[in-house]
Write a structure and sequence with these properties.
92 residues; mainly alpha; 2 domains
């Protein structure tokens, strides 16, 4: 199995685990069409795109921690965390 095949298997596993844990909730809330499209988007994600999303996730988590430490839910740090989170979610 080459790296691309391993990465494809990894993405398939992510989709399967998400379906096992959350399918009832997310499919009832957003509908099959939206969830199927999101799964297809993840399946089509390249390794480079995935790495970019992981970096975005780490940046979001750091910004969120900083915002909590600052204690201002309407402040610049909280706004940055929200923007990073939106961008990360949009990647999926």
């Amino acid at each position: 199995m080459d790296n691309r095949e391993r990465f494809d298997a990894f993405k398939d596993q992510m989709i399967e685990e998400n379906e096992q844990h959350y399918a009832a909730e997310i499919r009832s809330r957003y509908g099959d069409e939206v969830i199927d499209a999101a799964n297809a988007k993840l399946a089509d994600t390249s390794e480079a795109e995935y790495q970019d999303l992981e970096e975005l996730r780490r940046d979001y988590e750091e910004a969120l921690q900083a915002a909590f430490a600052h204690g201002d839910p309407a402040g610049v740090l909280a706004e940055k965390a929200c923007d990073l989170h939106r961008r990360w979610l949009s990647g999926y």
